[in-house]
Amino acid sequence: MDIKSMIARYREEHGVSRAEMARRVSVPTSTLQDWEISNTRPRIDNFLKLIAVTGTDILSTTAPQASTRHQRKPQSVIDGDAVADVA
Asked: What is the rounded distance in angstroms from the CA atom of residue 53 to the CA atom of residue 71?
């Protein structure tokens, strides 16, 4: 099950608003809305909160991919004409 479906199913089954579900997951309403319309994916800590709130089996979900936003980029080392990547 993807995140969008998980949120939609939970909200429908429990009759909760987007704002109430965001409160239960401890995120801003706008963040939950972004997840719900698939603009963004939750960070792993928020994904785990979402799993806990919805009671969804973690093995039946599609986990968010690791964000590349905060990953360290390799540094290039220039040695004459040769370029080597150093992690």
From this structure: 28
Backbone angles phi, psi at 67, to 5 degrees: -75, 135
Residues 6+ apart with CB under 8 A from 13: none
pTM: 0.64
Sign of the Cα torsion 59, 62, 63, 65 reads positive
Please write the tens of the pLDDT for every residue from 33-81: 999 998 888 999 999 999 999 988 877 766 555 554 544 444 554 445 5
Q: Is 79 helix (H, G, I), strand (E, B) or coil?
A: strand
Domains and CATH numbers, the chain: 3-60 (1.10.260.40)
